[in-house]
């Protein structure tokens, strides 16, 4: 399909939704690895509206219709609160809105079985790929804390698990162990002293893997509603005020442990070197960024966190970092079948980075716990 035909087809799909005005452009938006995402600009004589047209990736989300059910449940719960509180604080909090089809549905299914949806775009705001400074880190903490506070009274049982097994660390360890039994994985392990070092790193931390499942069995923590992917480039910051305004990429919202949201956000924000750094000497846990982030997060989270839940926040930072490193390492041993790579050793290096970050987190445990008191 040539470029003209692609734009023509996208415009045809867009017109099946109840959008105001005439579509003047539909073009790729962002560089996400999951859904196919397009910016659509529609104009009337008097105004312009920016929308997001997406094809939901059914390879990641096996039941895209359930993703839309969750999004409808989430927005129906949160939007009235946002409208009620509008103007009461120092900013306008936002959340994307579903644009219905002209037939009144939340999505369409094309001839190839693809699920398409249109949502509003959070305009005049930017999601950064890396933390800019401590103030930015604090704003990210505020946004995530506010999101968790807004959904703290939403029954997780009313949502469908979008990715079963997601952030269940024992499941990833079991997959890793199964991979190790394959001859190709054994060959990759035997050929690389660095891979052998990482395997020893995993073995030394096996005892901490079921920590959160054990905590739930004891009743120390319970399932709540989590975002599922709160990395820094899913947090929108107002271009004019510099204040956080919204969480985006809501497809992973579902029942889970918000601890892993907290840990994953901290993991991505407090390692300025990023996930692809090849010089491990540059990989470190930044306490200043963490102090700023946690200060922002607790502004709202202190209103719903129980003392026992708060006591597991450090463990979440450590375990989610270990979990991602484990997933990268398992994929390397399996032959790079899940994560996209540009060279054969990329997932091995990604695992090295996460495990080094995990070591740095462990070294800073007393300071981190003190900041979380």
What does this structure look like?
By secondary structure, this protein is an alpha+beta fold. Helix content is 46%, strand content 13%. It is built from 13 helices and 11 strands. The strands form 3 sheets. Strands 1, 2, 3, 4, 5 and 6 form a 6-stranded antiparallel beta sheet that branches. It has a 3-stranded antiparallel beta sheet with strand order 7-9-10, covered by helices on one side. The protein has a two-stranded antiparallel sheet with strand order 8-11. Strand 9 (235-238) and strand 10 (244-247) form a beta hairpin. Helix 4 (169-180) runs parallel beside helix 11 and helix 5 (183-191) crosses helix 6. The chain is globular.
N→C terminal distance? 57 Å
Instruction: Give the helix/strand class.
Output: alpha+beta
Largest sheet: 6 strands, antiparallel
What would the principal axes of the Cα set say about the shape? globular
Number of DSSP strand runs: 11
Percent strand equals: 5-15%
Task: Give the SSE order as H and E letters.
Answer: HEEEHEEEEHHHHHEEEEHHHHHH
- Low-confidence segments, given as residue ranges, are none
Determine Rg (CA atoms, Å): 21 Å
Q: What are the salient characteristics of this protein?
A:
alpha+beta, 373 residues, 46% helix, 3-stranded antiparallel beta sheet, 13 helices
């Amino acid at each position: 399909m040539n470029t003209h035909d692609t734009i023509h087809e996208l415009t045809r799909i867009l017109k099946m939704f109840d959008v105001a005005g005439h579509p003047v452009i539909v073009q790729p938006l962002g560089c996400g690895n999951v859904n196919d995402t397009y910016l659509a600009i529609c104009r009337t004589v008097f105004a312009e509206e920016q929308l997001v047209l997406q094809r939901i990736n059914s390879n990641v989300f096996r039941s895209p219709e359930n993703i839309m059910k969750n999004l409808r449940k989430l927005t129906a719960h949160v939007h009235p609160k946002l409208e009620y509180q509008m103007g009461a604080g120092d900013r306008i909090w936002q959340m994307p809105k579903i644009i219905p089809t002209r037939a009144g549905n939340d999505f369409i299914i094309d001839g190839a079985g693809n699920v398409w949806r249109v949502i509003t775009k959070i305009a005049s705001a930017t999601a950064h790929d890396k933390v800019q400074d401590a103030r930015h880190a604090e704003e990210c903490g505020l946004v995530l804390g506010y999101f968790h506070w807004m959904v703290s009274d939403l029954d997780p049982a009313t949502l469908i698990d979008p990715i079963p097994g997601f952030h269940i660390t024992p499941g990833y360890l079991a997959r890793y162990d199964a991979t190790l039994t394959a001859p190709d994985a054994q060959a990759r392990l035997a050929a690389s002293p660095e891979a052998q070092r990482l395997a020893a790193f995993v073995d030394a931390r096996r005892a901490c893997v079921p920590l959160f499942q054990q905590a739930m069995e004891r009743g120390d923590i319970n399932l709540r509603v989590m975002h599922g992917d709160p990395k820094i480039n899913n947090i929108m910051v107002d271009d004019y005020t510099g204040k956080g305004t919204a969480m985006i990429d809501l497809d992973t919202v579902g029942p889970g442990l918000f601890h892993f949201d907290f840990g994953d956000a901290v993991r991505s924000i407090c390692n300025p070197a990023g996930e692809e750094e090849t010089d491990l000497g540059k990989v470190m846990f930044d306490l200043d960024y963490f102090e700023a982030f946690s200060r922002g997060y607790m502004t709202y989270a202190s209103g719903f966190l129980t003392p026992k839940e708060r006591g597991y926040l450090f463990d979440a930072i450590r375990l989610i970092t270990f979990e991602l490193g484990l997933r990268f390492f398992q994929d390397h041993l399996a032959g790079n079948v899940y994560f996209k790579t540009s060279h054969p050793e990329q997932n091995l290096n990604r695992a090295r980075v996460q495990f080094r970050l995990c070591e740095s987190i462990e070294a800073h445990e007393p300071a981190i716990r003190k900041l979380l008191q």
